[in-house]
Design goal:
With about 70 residues, the chain is an all-alpha fold. It has a domain of about 50 residues. About 90% of the residues lie in helices and about 0% in strands. The chain starts with a helix and ends with a helix.
Length: about 70
């Protein structure tokens, strides 16, 4: 679990440094001016959040199966 959080922090810091760069993207500027960028960001957060929750559920199920297989031996 510690590896997961370390990887998550590495990815977040990587994304933050990308946003810190001073580059202008025409599509992003247009979306920002029209107020639609917030919809795009919200959709990205929902998708990433769903993936994270899915992976946490799968990890829990796998841990439970491993624990049951160890106790059955």
């Amino acid at each position: 679990m510690l590896r997961f959080w370390m990887l998550a922090m590495l990815l977040v810091s990587n994304v933050l440094t990308t946003f810190a760069q001073d580059q202008s993207v025409q599509m992003a500027d247009t979306l920002r001016q029209e107020g639609k960028i917030y919809v795009v960001v919200a959709c990205i957060f929902v998708i990433v959040g769903g993936l994270v929750l899915f992976l946490i559920r799968i990890d829990g199920k796998l841990s439970r199966l491993e624990k049951e297989s160890r106790s059955a031996k």
